[in-house]
Amino acid sequence: LARVLDGERLSDADALTLMQSRDLVAIGAAANEIRNRKANPGEVTYIVDRNINYTNICVSDCDFCAFYRNPGDHREGYLLPNAVIFKKIEETLAIGGTGVLMQGGHHPDLDIAYYEHLFRSIKERYRIHLHALSPPEVQHIARRSKLSIPDTLSRLRDAGLDSIPGGGGEILVDRVRQVISPKKTKSAEWLNVMRYAHQSGMSTTATMMYGHVETLAERVEHMRRIRDLQDETRGFRAFISWTFQDDGNRLGAAVPRETMPTSFDYLLTQAVSRIYLDNIDHIQSSWVTQGMKIGQIALEFGADDLGSIMIEENVVSAAGTTHRASAEEFVRAIRGLGKTPVQRDTLYREVRVFD
Questions:
Q1: If DSSP codes are grouped into helix, strand and coil, which group holds residue 70?
Q2: What does pTM read for this prediction?
């Protein structure tokens, strides 16, 4: 920790040592010091936006997902009509929202023409940031449309796609992916979508969903791959990690309850991510999976951002976690730490400062 605070880059072996440590207070203090060097020590940011899950029809069949439905499920499967998506965007704008996070399943019938028409229709009507389509969705669209990844991204960007979320990252180690999501994007493919997005001028976020079948060393390997690509492209603006939610999915039945990550494990992992990912400016607290109390504490363990108020959220809640919060609760939680709340947009530009 002393070497890191002196500016030395953390090695994989050192990161693993920290992951195995029980000295949460010292590691959290170092992460907080680094956070304060990278972001305004007196401020905490958050965003008002909405998750729009445009379809839950998916062919990937991931063991950890309780949200998806198989093609042909006419009882619970859905594809939102454009009019419903427009109404959700209008509701977001009406309360001061600045963006939407659009993700869905890998629908077998949707090619690039669907997304181009949808994105153009949104941009013609609304001034809003489209943070949409995880790398696996981009790859699915490319394959379905018989296009290369660069051509797919170029056409989506021209239609109105502004940036790409880090969904589908899970753990970027193929041993793990073969267990939890064998039909979905491999590690190198996920990274390649992000590489092409960055090269095309789009910034993205990176994520890690952990606490299932991965080892601590594999968590470090995941972060190394993110850090290496960031060294190459500088395209990741934020990193968000969260714990596996075990309700209503096949993987939950296979992971022993006693091995599930605790709040201690969450805070430790987030703190190590802040220290290790020395080339990523922003770390988001995952209050959606941890609850607002731990989400608030995480702001003293390396996080500088509270993420979204989540006007709507369907994927994590399908797995049994249904924490909710309002902008007022965000402001109260941030002020409770003696910091100034700042509403931001998707690109971390200031929208409103709460004096």
A1: coil
A2: 0.90
